[in-house]
Amino acid sequence: MSAEVENTNEQQQAEGVKLNGLFAFKLGMSTIFENGEAVPVTLLQYRPWVISQIKTEDKDGYTAVQIACGSKRASRTTNAAKNHLSKAGFENGAEFIREFRQDLPEGIEVGQKIDINSLSAGDTINVTARTKGRGFAGVMKRWDFGGGRASHGSGTHRRPGSIGNNKEPARVMPGRKMPGHYGFVNVTTRNLQVVDVDAKEGVLFVRGAVPGARNTIVKLVKV
Fold it and tell me: Which of 38, 48, 171, 201 is nearest to 111 (CA)?
């Protein structure tokens, strides 16, 4: 190994590896002021993530960086997970395992930490998170239907109306908007902006709203 590559590895070990994005946890919303204007921001808590596996085209069919965060109790972890994550420093497995599909940074190794400065103020990002679950809901709440007549005698105030066709094809077509479980699905909000990154406190400030409830894990990808 050349001295140049060794220096790169030592620097990455000290500062952390920079990827095309980060995973963070939603704290909530707040307001900051820029040039006298109130700006709504979402606060995201960054926790230490460690590289647990490096996936390559030859071995895995695609290129990606697998990362892990948090610890689990030994009784809650399989032996396979313990063996897989032991090289990354997780004795009893990790609470969260995620990955970024991207080109591999130079000198990347299992066990290196991810640098919060992978994102910086001014970056445009796509944010993916699981939305709040709202349980079973009707079509007016779930799909914003207008509903039926509100007049006296009407018995279809909040019903969906007709859901079928004629004799042919004599079935309900796939994708029909009907009552059902509302929320708790992965949603991507595109082209949000990173307002600030507080590396000391491990907090990222993103302009606008981010999907999900508090403590939801959020994926941030640089555009």
Answer: 48
- The matching CATH number, chosen from 2.30.30.40, 2.40.30.10, 3.30.70.330, 3.40.50.720, for 17-47+116-132+184-223 is 2.40.30.10
Phi-psi region of 183 (alpha: psi -120 to 50; beta: other; left: phi over 0): left
Please state, in angstroms and rounded to a whole number, the distance separating the CA atoms of residues 80 and 96.
15
Taking a C-beta distance cutoff of 8 angstroms, is the pair 42, 209 a contact? yes
Confidence (pTM): 0.83
Per residue in 122-145, pLDDT (tens digit) is 999 999 999 999 999 999 999 999
CA torsion, ordered 204, 10, 66, 202, to nearest 10 deg: -20
Relative to beta strand 217-222, strand 124-130 is antiparallel
Q: What is the pLDDT of residues 35-61, one digit of tens each?
A: 999 999 999 999 999 999 999 999 999
